[in-house]
Amino acid sequence: MTMKRPVRQMGAGDFKAKCLAVLDEVAASRREVVITKRGRPVARLVPLEAATNAPLAGLIVQQGDLVSPIDVEWDAAK
To answer: What domains can you pick out in the chain, each with its CATH number?
Structure first.
């Protein structure tokens, strides 16, 4: 059985004052923080999944020579 840690809550004013530190904490601990305003939850700060070093890897496909002239006659005025 896995025990889930309770979600940390903090007021919006406190979050504003400590924003960068809270971002670092969430990234390091992988634990979300709920931001509240007047006691009501308004936002949830969650850690991102591990990103790859090359976010565009696999998205670009080389289709051959793109700069050499083609062997087809064409008229740009048409």
So the answer is: 8-45 (3.40.1620)
